[in-house]
């Protein structure tokens, strides 16, 4: 089946055929003699490994808890052994009740970890209630040490397994074949998004588009496998794992329902892409309205208690950061002053929340009057259509190149956070010239404070196109939360160490 498809692709568009064929060879396990069942076999193995490691984590936590000395009456050896044996069983039971082993919660997203916390809280509450109701003497070490340690070890195990899986997916293993169904613009956008998020494990191998008679070609590097009315046949012919359907007037409720029925005798999953994109899961809920399950999109939150909490976290963390990094700040200041003529700090006007200008603070990484030389270098711009960037900018000093490589020149912006003009996490602050080129979408970024780090920094920085930068900034503004901020701060560490896009 796959070989016949490759022959079709090779004969479709000469310029694209070879690249598509090469891409297909390493993306499609069927070429190596594997079918749909083999492609999905790893899932059951993953879950079994997860159950085993969760039990081991609980057993280790129970052993550590039993070794902690008690202030009160000592438990008998038999009771202590019983608790050590019981915790792994009870722990797995709590994980099952919290549905932490369901595949839809694994591999990507924070829901898996949230459910682990919920299971631990449920178990802690249950132990407390039962011990109080029946006047049982449960060792404090079991409650204070064993349960929290079991939670931490379980989370560590799941993070490690997930990172291992993402690494394998980056090499083309443990992936699901997918076909995109819809109009060309939507297919192209979803294909690009799935390529960017390869860790989710979807490999798009083709698409189904509205076709005129005899219309078959390659679109956006993907073979066109059929029309909108041929989706079920395509799934059976090529043993597709996932069908992603985009909003299309041709695929109304009745036809989608029929497509779902047609796919029931296959192994394919049916995914429906919403018309509203770049909206995170916590803002989207399915609610019954007039007897119909309708998607409800919560408003983005720009004021209120969560905003106050963000302000408190920002300023507290910035103050602690200044205290901890004070030796580093002083050392960099001395190096900047000693290695080149000019001031230690560089200030520049940027546009902040609600379009208000402010002075961003950085360590000077370029020669004096570097902005006046920029006009002579515009023909060598290696940035995007709006931002000027050069990989080897002649204006950058020696110590400046090192600081920019690891983003050390931006550490003084902690003082901007303390002053209230910036946040730790948010869109990057742009200069007036760049803001004047904003489209309607990009002006959404002015609803929040700019940040020292953000999605832009952890997604490639200067290597990104302007459109990608817009998409990431708007995504953050629409979906921000403290948990999202902490995730970005964690990823910033890796982005800084890699230095990707830093120039």
From TrEMBL:
Membrane topology: Multi-pass membrane protein
TM helices/strands, residue ranges: 50-68, 74-96, 116-134, 140-161, 316-336
Domain Bacterial sugar transferase: 310-497
KW Ribonucleoprotein (keyword) present: no
UniProtKB keywords: Membrane, Transferase, Transmembrane, Transmembrane helix
GO CC annotation: membrane
Pfam families (UniProt xref): Bac_transf (PF02397), CoA_binding_3 (PF13727)
Gene Ontology MF term list: phosphotransferase activity, for other substituted phosphate groups
UniProt xrefs under InterPro entries: Bact_transf (IPR003362), EPS_sugar_tfrase (IPR017475)
Main localisation: membrane
Subcellular location per the Swiss-Prot or TrEMBL entry: Membrane
Gene3D superfamilies in alphabetical order: NAD(P)-binding Rossmann-like Domain
Family assignment from sequence similarity: Belongs to the bacterial sugar transferase family.
Protein name per the record: Undecaprenyl-phosphate galactose phosphotransferase WbaP/exopolysaccharide biosynthesis polyprenyl glycosylphosphotransferase
Species of the source: Geodermatophilus normandii
